[in-house]
Amino acid sequence: MDIRLWQEEIERKTLSRYATLSSESRGRSRAAEACDIRTEFQRDRDKIIHSKAFRRLKHKTQVFITPEGDHYRTRLTHTLEVSQIARTIARALRLNEDLTEAIALGHDLGHTPFGHEGERALDRVSTLGFRHNEQSLRVVDVLENGTGLNLTDEVRDGILCHTGDRKPATPEGEIICLADKIAYINHDIDDAIRGGIIRADSLPTECVETLGSTHGRRIDSMVRDVIENSMDKPHVSMSESMYTSMMNLRAYMFDAVYIGSEAKLEEKKAGDMIASLFYFFMENYEILPGASGAEGEEKEREILDYIACMTDTYATHIFKKHFIPKGWYR
Q1: Between the chain's N and C termini, which has fewer beta carbons within 10 Å?
Q2: Per-residue DSSP letters for 279-292?
Q3: pTM of the predicted protein model
Q4: pLDDT tens by residue, 69-128
Q5: Burial of residue 326 (number of CB atoms within 10 Å: 0-12, 13-18, 19+)
Q6: DSSP secondary-structure letter at 74?
Q7: 259-298 burial by CB neighbour count: b if 16+ within 10 A, else e?
Q8: Of 318, 316, 306, nearest to 59 (Cα)?
């Protein structure tokens, strides 16, 4: 029995008319023999989970740089929370849960060490610019395993378009755009309260009244709104009032946590370290691991790839290696 064909038939019979069917995928850049057990989107999910880039996320900053505590989020736990929220929405709307999960698990694979500060640092120093969503696509297209993961076009589109001006081509990709915000706003509040940066009673009154006073209630309110506002519609979205409340809460987090708070005192050091590594390898390209001898933009791209793939701990190790003098002894 071909289990994949059976699963594809279940999709056709049970999913919404707006769902992206795995049997109708636009395909991969390189031809690949179909699996007789898994659908195309299930294969993509598995490829991402088993990748080295996915494992590195556990040592990359979400908001708090190398926090001393076991319960603060990392880029990996953020990714898992996005996946959980997104799957809940996809299942309720009868959209393709496997495609949704694959996009969620891959959306931040290109994120830099030290979170958005690392991203901003590379964007400042590189003539090519740097965006983590574009780098995530580069990871799955080119860098992982040396040849990329050869993912389906739908997963690639969702990864690229989860943030920024580009609009996802599938409703499953639209889910990730919202699930990403729902996840990081709420878990960053949770971490900031845990770290004593803000108090639960300091959240904007309007946001609390609309969204709820606890972590779980806020997520539940947002998820329910997305489902109710998107049921039997071709696009996935929040109601205008809920979206406004969510973005007001996000604005509060920028003012209270993301910019200038006690939690961010070490960020400039992290950004300076990333910038210093970039300039160092531009001047000492020959010692870059895997340097191909490229020049111009290709040389710069190799350096960006190397630094962006680093974890926080590895970036610190490489910085110490090249910038901190060792004591002399005989």
Answers
A1: C
A2: HHHHHSGGGSTT--
A3: 0.96
A4: 788 899 999 999 999 999 999 999 999 999 999 999 999 999 999 999 999 999 999 999
A5: exposed
A6: B
A7: eebebbeebeebbebbbebbebbeeebeebeeeeeeeeee
A8: 316
Give how far the C-alpha of residue 329 lies from the chain's centroid of Cα atoms, to the nearest Å: 45
State the CB neighbour count (10 A cutoff) for residue 114. Answer: 26
The SS3 call for residue 61 is: strand
Say if CB 139 and CB 60 are below 8 A apart: no
Map residue 326 onto helix, strand or coil.
Answer: coil
Sequential DSSP letters for 179-192 = HHHHHHHHHHHHHH
Give the tokens for residue 224: 């329910």
Is residue 195 within 8 Å of 72, Cβ to Cβ? Answer: yes
Contact 170, 22 (CB under 8 A): no
Percentages (nearest 5) of helix, strand, coil residues in the chain: 65, 0, 35
Largest separation between any pair of C-alpha atoms in the chain: 75
Please report, as a single letter, which amino acid is at residue 164.
G
* Angle value at C-alpha 72, between 156 and 181, nearest 5 degrees: 40
